[in-house]
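Bench notes, afternoon.
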Amino acid sequence: MRKLSVVEISDLARNTITFRNYKNKLGIGDLGSGGISLDDMQHVDLTSPMRLNALLLILITEGHANVSLDNVPYELSAHSFLFIMPSHITQITYTSPDLRGKLLLADLAFLEECKPETINPSLVNYMRLRKNPHIRLEEAEVGFLDNHIEMLKKKLSEKEHFFQQEIIHITFMALLLEMVNIVLKRKDYIVEKRMTRKEEIVNKFLQQLLRNYQEEHAIGFYADLLCITPQYLSSVLKELTDKTASEWIDEAILSEARVLLKSPKMTVQEVSIQLNFADQSTFGKFFKKHVGMSPSQYKKEVF
């Protein structure tokens, strides 16, 4: 089977759409029978399979649509809500003439900025959402979420606002928390369907990573906790999430490093110590390899 490359939001913007956009990181638009219209844009074509490097949320208010996630079909109708995690192979295979709804795209960099890790991973975990992405909403819940999405959409256009970035982050996180609250109120959703052994490995790894990434950078540490080899851990993660263990660990460290470097109270050396690097030089090489600039340069750009 042909392996699909990961598609960034910026790639979509360049090739198929023009966002009314927050830095090519966040887009909100209207879903209709003719496709997806994201305001000052042309069209998003999701009728061909693609692997998005972004969180994709679809809310159906009228009509019907068929969506395939990793070749698993989902039939959507009014009051359907689809929570699509990054790295799913996504394809919209059918839309009815009367289809109406909302679509939200948020890339990984934007999610890191918002620090959604503050949501307890024991409540809504990665594999649970991957296994059960489709939720049926009550009419009041549809209206409630639709209003929140419209509010966030409005904030995207307020480019003269002195605190636009902060307002967008807060509004997005409020929307995400409301969505999580709706999910958690469903007893049938909280009772997890039995996970496969590989899915359990992914879920346990991500929970341990969240607890330990600042201190522990070695794959072997996490493999030992799960009583498996580092090679098997990486192969399972690659198969189910399209990222290796080292990629997950590096992303967690980089996300925290960016947050810490934005603090005027912390020096580069203090950041390297907090993230448990051997010395500032080692941290600098790691950061530059992944970000393309030194921690000092990054800090200057921020301020």
